[in-house]
Amino acid sequence: MTFAIRREMARNEWINSYLEAILDVGTSNKKRFESNSKIVQKLGDMNRKEPQEKVFSPIKYFVEEVVNSFDESDLYKTWIKVIATRNTRERSNRLENICWRIWHLARKKKQIVWDDGIRLSKRRDEREKGRNDAEEDLSELSEGEKEKSDAVTTLEPPRDQMPRIRSEMQIWSEDDKSSRNLYIVLIRQVQVDAYQVPASICSMHGLVRGENMELGRDSDTGGQVKYVVELARALANTEGVHRVDLLTRQISSPEVDSSYGEPVEMLSCPPEGSGSCGSYIIRIPCGSRDKYIAKESLWPHIHEFVDGALNHIVDIARSLGEQVNGGKPIWPYVIHGHYADAGEVAAHLAGTLNVPMVLTGHSLGRNKFEQLLKQGRITREDINKTYKIMRRIEAEELSLDAAEMVVTSTRQEIEAQWGLYDGFDIKLERKLRVRRRRGVTCFGRYMPRMVVIPPGMDFSYVLTQDSQDADADLKSLIGPDRNQIKKPVPPIWSEIMRFFTNTHKPTILALSRPDPKKNVTTLLKAFGECQPLRELANLTLILGNRDDIEEMSNSSSVVLMSVLKLIDQYDLYGQVAYPKHHKQSEVPDIYRLAAKTKGVFINPALVEPFGLTLIEAAAYGLPIVATKNGGPVDIVKALNHGLLVDPHDQQAISDALLKLVANKHLWAECRKNGLKNIHRFSWPEHCRNYLSHVEHCRNRHPTSSLDIMKVPEEPISDSLGDVDDISLRFSMDGDFKLNGELDASTRQRKLVNAISQMNSMKGGPSALYSPGKRQMLFVITVDSYDDNGDTKANLEDVIKNVMKTAGLTSGKGKIGFVLATGSSVQEVVEMTKKYLINLEEFDAIVCNSGSEIYYPWRDMEVDADYEAHVEYKWPGESLRSVILRLACTKLETEDDITEYTSACSTRCYAISVKQGVETRRVDDLRQRLRMRGLRCNIVYTHAATRLNVIPLCASRLQAVRYLSIRWGIDMKKSVFFVGEKGDTDYEDLLGGLHKTIILKGAVGSDSEKLLRSEENFKREDVVPRDSPNISYVEENGGPPEMLSTLEAYGIK
């Protein structure tokens, strides 16, 4: 009982001391402010800019200590005590006020944690329900499975154990390297087996360049910049890879070096006679060119980057095709997106070009979101506002939808991080993988394949003596005879050695940012409290660069102040080095110093996603001690060059360090193992594994041919009556078929008859168009419906005004017209017939929200190539029962939601929604489908009375991009005519390089209320504010007003 009372008193004493410290800091800040007011005023009058540094806040530190370390009841008792003992002094009143406010913060944090727990519990239940639904469907054997099962039963005897299912993936071989020409696109984010493969990498944010990388300049320019640059170089040096493009954002801002504004930068020059093109950084204009944009603000410019990247890839594909493929374009072998923003870019590019997509997340938004919520310091709304976290999570979910493969560094990343996402379930993924290997149907369900490929490293800078001279020490280098040594001592060695009393002791090295998660304070405590370790070794802490601790961020300041206090507390002067500065180029010398003193490298982080420093240490023959949480488990298993410890256990840390330093045999064995196995983390090994997995993915990815229409050299007359040349046909090899829902031949006859009747009514011959001669596209995407979902009569005026406006421009005859709508092709034909609109004036009709394309100039034939283009991952018939079950929140009668048979097709499942029925929003419905492994696009149309479920890669915007590539028309030369609102895909139509003209008053009822919930991201996270590509035409504006807007765009 006495012990409990003492403990209670101790807790209250801690609270009281923290509150007193807050009061003291507040008073000193007030005095400091008053004394410096005149100085601040003088500085304000000067014409120079002062840096706005975020200074360390002791008040915030103490408040967080109180809120996070003590229970609400302790704070309440302290507040009661303060009230009981208060007096008239100002300090007493302030103490009472502060105590109450902190108590309120603690209660608020508790409520946030409680709400978050409920939310996570609901989400876990929904994920479990989705998995159970999927497993229930997968448990039903198809006819093919039953036959296989019967055959196995009759032909094979029973076995005690199930045979191991072996992967069919083959390791990338150099035997057939001469037959490859690969083009790879990496983005910071075509069957061409007879040619070398090109590739693309995409990495949008941050500052990316090949030399003198400014790593650590800001939070966007970190290790992933170095990773993607080295990956591009390494892939280009791999036999069989023809060209690698690293796509990033072009920045021409005075705030950064001019090199970031160069459109093209060569990363690696191929050897002469190799036939390879090398690797390049391609900088795509995106957003404001003269301003550096942080990653949180890049989201509205995603579609701009996609269109710019498409232009580049199409040009390169044409050029490579002319060089090595007889004029036929060579499309990227793979498109690889890095981080969330580039992942979304890669998803759009892969969907447009129909090539496999690979994703590397690096840092994941949902994991960060959960960690911030657990801290309880900031609300969900504030997190979303500050970090745009919901927009980032949706981009990562979309990337998972489109990705064929996800590259991770460790298994921990798969289970603990990607396992948080709706689009990935490790149990369901394994089950689907087994079914695919057995040739069994997956009922339209897909999960991306997660593969562990650790980042590669360039070991060319590691000197031979680093791996051979195992018995070297510093006696000959820093001893009395050091002046006789010809080789100069690295400056960083002298900077470190000046801290030590005895410079010849083994050096324990820790290298990290001054971040609380790196757990440096626990390492210091373990070292300070272990007398044998202190007597045996020195400790070197490389904690970034600093000038003034008070000018650093709060978290960094707290860590560094704690380090200095612990050094003083344990009297570690002369035993611990903590230099203020070091260069990136000096890091190898720091590793060498630790290795030559027969020291140890330690990474005591609470959780380490990968642990690149552990590999670097192995390259220099330096044994390691590392956290057992995260990536180090896989690294140590592969290299066998050190020990793993619990980062929370001080005794375990000191024991492991002492064991490695004191046991010379163990130290030498770990050193030997690290040097022997380090090749597993080399770039050649990384690229070999990477390309093997990509090739395995391509074998499952049905890549259809994407041809670019050849433009005739001679001009064609307006009549175009004698156009039969195959070069003017949209597809040279593809067969066109009508996409009917029941009887295609009957449906085609009806459409042809309807068009023929329209032609006969006009008394004119059937005209044919040549999209290959078009130089510009006018795309009409006005979603004009009444409350019942019927097309409004004003759509006729919109179409005719747009066509009249085109006739007033100098480009008459060179402008193509596309009608993009959520209606079916039958409804479009009926609408044009009702309003006497000449359907033949359109070059293409995009129907059912972008799932089908028809060509009036080819007798309304459907584009079969486009159908095959968007087919991948389309669940088809497996979707029908699921979508009817999930779409409605409360199904009162059976006819609330019904299949809209007349609008259904092989690529669109249309559902009719009765007015007043509550249906799930797009974001909610998509989440539930993802949890069940179903990948598709969802669009509410016809004033929310219809739900179109279409393939993942299909949309109205993607259909226009497809046409622009096939017809050779730059998206910059496209003009979209839209209303002020529309279907739930309306936002996609506003972004990109195309021009957008918003016709005010053209739309009555819309469907956007069913797009997403209020707590999700906002429109400004999708559509750029004040975009120069968006203009308005006032209500009732006719051709003159439209022409004036076009002239403002430079279209005359």
Cα-based radius of gyration, to the nearest Å: 33 Å
**Amount of helix:** 40-55%
What is the mean pLDDT? Answer: 80
Please indicate the percent range of residues in DSSP E strands (runs of 2 or more): 5-15%
Largest sheet report? 9 strands, mixed
* Shape designation: globular
Total of helices: 33
Name the structural class. alpha/beta
The first-to-last residue Cα distance is 91 Å
Q: Total strand count, please?
A: 27
Outline the low-pLDDT stretches: 1-11, 26-58, 141-168, 189-196, 713-742, 758-769
What this model shows, in words?
This is Sucrose-phosphate synthase. Homodimer or homotetramer. Residues 502-675 form the Glycosyl transferase family domain. Its EC number is 2.4.1.14. It comes from Brassica napus. The chain is an alpha/beta fold and 1052 residues long. The strands form four sheets. Strands 1, 2, 3, 4, 5, 6, 7, 8 and 9 form a nine-stranded mixed beta sheet that branches. Strands 20-19-18-17-16-25-26-27 form an eight-stranded mixed beta sheet, sandwiched between helices. Strand 23 and strand 24 (946-951) form a beta hairpin. The protein is globular, with a radius of gyration of 33 Å.
